[in-house]
Amino acid sequence: MGYDDALRNILEPTLRMVGERWASDGISLAQGFVAGKVAEDFLVLGKTQNTPRFAGGAENTGDDGAGLPARIAVLGNVEDDYHVLGRSMVASFLGIEGWNIVDLGCDVLADEFVDKAIEAGACVIGASAMMLTTARNIVKIRQVLQYRGLADRLKLAVGGAVFAMRPDLVGEVGGRNSQNGA
Amino acid sequence: MNSMERIGAVLSGGVPDRRPFTLTLSLYGARLAGVSAVDYFADPALYAAGQKAVVDLCEPDIVFGPFALALEAEAYGALVERFSDAPPLVKNPAFKSALDIESITRPEPESDPRLRFLVDSVRAVVQDQHGTRPVAAPITAPCDLPVLLLGMDQWLETLLFKPELAAQWGRLATEHFEALATAYFTAGASFLVSPVMLANPAIIHPELADRTILPILKDAFGRSPGPIVFHHGGNRLSRSLDQVKDLPNIAGFVVDERDALAVSRRTLGAAPLLLGNLSGPHFAHRHPADIANRTVQILRDREADVNFILASSNADIPYDTDPDCVVAVRRAVEAF
Which residues of chain A neighbour B284 with C-beta distances below 8 Å? Predict the structure, then answer.
């Protein structure tokens, strides 16, 4: 079995199952963490072997001629937030799905999210926050998007433990969507 | 009855004059005292003044020492961010690698300024209350301390794949817990409250927790010189209560707002204290009338439960909460 077969027939279905179980509280963070690590290792292997999927082909840039937006996401923990794990797991899972990820790390200011998203040609900003106090800083990203007239071009996805506890917060901070176990 | 007598009556199977209640208003004391949380979480006198203001506002039956677990990590060298309206937060863990365990010198509560602040604050609050009100001392669960010192990903990786190294971290965390718990009780704390994150099936599945987390908790809690209240730590607790209910020195459990109190009580049996379940972080976004209604609903539900204490769960009540929301709980309890 080659790399691409393993990816499509083993890893992708397994990760889909992990995602579904996680969304329904069927697995623990530790199990999701291990799945994320496996996905990450697999990605590294793909890049090392220069397989077509990771060689800068259509799946990464997204510009496949069919008019679909580029599959590029800018991720980061919002201003004052330093909880790394959720963000890095989302980055791993998106990576295995063929997304190009620009990971900005922790404590990212609103302008920086937007600047980097423009620079990278991203279609989505993923902002992570674990606590209520830091989640409120996501509003600033929404405000920058509105102010710069980018609200229709750049989607704002939000995530973090606080959104599982308070789903109403997604709209309150200006997020377009959040998905449990994403 | 004063609060100490009220809680004492509950613990001894007596009849209190009314249902005792408490709210986690550690941070909120800064707002009531009119000081920045930066100063508040650095000066025991300011902290005690804040807790005095909390008592003046709503007379909870239990007051708290600083809910500032990040300071325990700062004592080890973690980089901590301070905010004017929120508790301190770990910005960068103290260590880059689990292998750094070999070079760690454990800070002592008597000499480290961060730990001394925590203990001195408890002492100052105890002195202010003159034995009329129990003082709870928040303390990082020993299984969770490495999360603050290493980061969650490093600690998970160590726990899952490097058992001997994980055991070393477990020993460090246990010794830290014992030393700080002893200092808190010496300062006059009535009990510890320990938010436990990693024993929860949302974080680690039960079979693994049995092997890795429970032994750490059993050892550390067994060394505590006094009672501990097991706090749900942000996740639902009712489905894992069975796994943790027999840990040593546990006097009670704080459950999440999403936990059904009746289910939790069935799992625990009649004896341990059950505390909850008004979510602290939700206070800032609820109307006082809504909070009063919820309080009454909970009290009705638990009317026959003599070992129930109405309490806020989850994290501290936010700084920007309307004081009327806090007072609404006291009024509802008194009117019930």
Answer: 132
